[in-house]
Sequence to fold (255 residues):
Amino acid sequence: MRRKLIAGNWKMNGLRASSKALVQGLLDGISGGGPSYELLACELLVCPPACLLETVGGLIAGSPIGLGGQDCHSAEAGAHTGDISAAMLKDAGCAYVILGHSERRSDHGEADALVRAKATAALAAGLAPIVCVGETAAERDEGRTLAVVEDQLAGSLPPPGPGQDLVIAYEPVWAIGSGRTPSTAEVGEVHGAIRRWLDARLGAEAAAAIRILYGGSMKPGNAAELLAVPAVDGGLIGGASLKAEDFLAIARACA
Ligand code: PEP
Fold:
């Protein structure tokens, strides 16, 4: 049984003061007056902008909330102005890093091969990559969803190796930040296909350790039904992760 992962992708949002308030809201919600963390049937993760990792990491230290980065470079170190290595994220307290998000793919022209190189670097540094895949609206309309997602998996995942700590996020591009979501049947179809693809590539035993998150306009009102879809092992949450009560409501929907 895979423990569900609820990961918040803050994207380019937050300053120190607002981030402290958000994290405090999360901490208050999972202790003290709110329902205790033990009642949450999931692992919680926040992925703030890089410059807030230290602030957020300090606040969540000793709590059950984990820390993740939003991207890393594929090289260990060197002349890459503005970039961050996987080792730097690890050193800052991260356990995970989001890679190949559709906004990185579109804003920065990141293709599968680069995502794979980054994921390989992340694993080498001891981070669990959260590798994002998903079709555009046009690709879905053309009936190419599964082919596109399988191509992205084949190109973006690191070469198989023993004991890899890896997460996949299925995020239909048209659902991200749009308020639209696929039907639960459509989500189930894609997650089932990803699970079968992983089984075939890695063998069922190794594949069983890999969680497949759904991402794209998940919010308190639709989280329970999306998280109940077989083969959905959690959520990657953008907008709704910026409000503590919404993020926690999604986490509680795992139960
Ligand atoms: C995302 O960008 O990973 C995401 C899922 O965003 P949103 O929840 O805002 O659709």
In short: The chain is about 40% helix and 15% strand. The mean pLDDT is 95. The CA atoms of residues 204 and 253 lie 27 Å apart.
